[in-house]
Amino acid sequence: MSRALGALRVVFGAALVLGALHYFLPSLVSFVPGYAWQDPMAVRLMDQFDKSGLLAVAMFIHLVAGALLVVDRGVPFALAALMPVNVCGTYISLFVEGGPAIGLLAVLTIAVDALLMLAYLPYYRGVLEPGQLADGEAPEAGRNYASLYVNPLSQAPASAYPGAALVLAAAAAFYWFVVLGLNSTTGLAVLAVPAVLLAVGWARALTGKA
User: Fold this and answer.
1) 86 pLDDT exceeds 90?
2) Which end of the chain is flanked by fewer CB atoms within 10 Å, N or C?
């Protein structure tokens, strides 16, 4: 990595750390300017994020990832962890708040994050190439996620499906009994897709069509 990108990494990480500290310990970094949301929808949204604890989670990610960027440890992981948080922040800043200053800052943040990820692109090669296996998976049908929950024509054996169905049932129970509100419904709706594919694959295996 060039010195310029290295300096950008350090500055970016330091800015994230200071922003997170302004949230958790505002008196410690009182020199860091804050931002008062203006749009009523943005105010309500950020207030709910704060009350739910999601804003604290986002700021904690900024704090830890920013520190990793500064000390140059686990940088590819830190950048990848930051990206979804920054994407959400950019959406709120641009399309809910709509303020030019906060919008420009959000776009700049996500642009720097993306630029640094491009600089570390070789580290992401494993997850970008198709057909990669996670830890504990094997290439044989029935011993990886894709052959059970994605491809019902994978020819996985019938013996592989009960365990896969148990995992899916546990995830559904979590969303049904633990998660509240719209998130529960959304989670169950998402699980419906792998559930249908699992059922089709299991039926094919039991009827000898696998």
Assistant:
1) yes
2) N
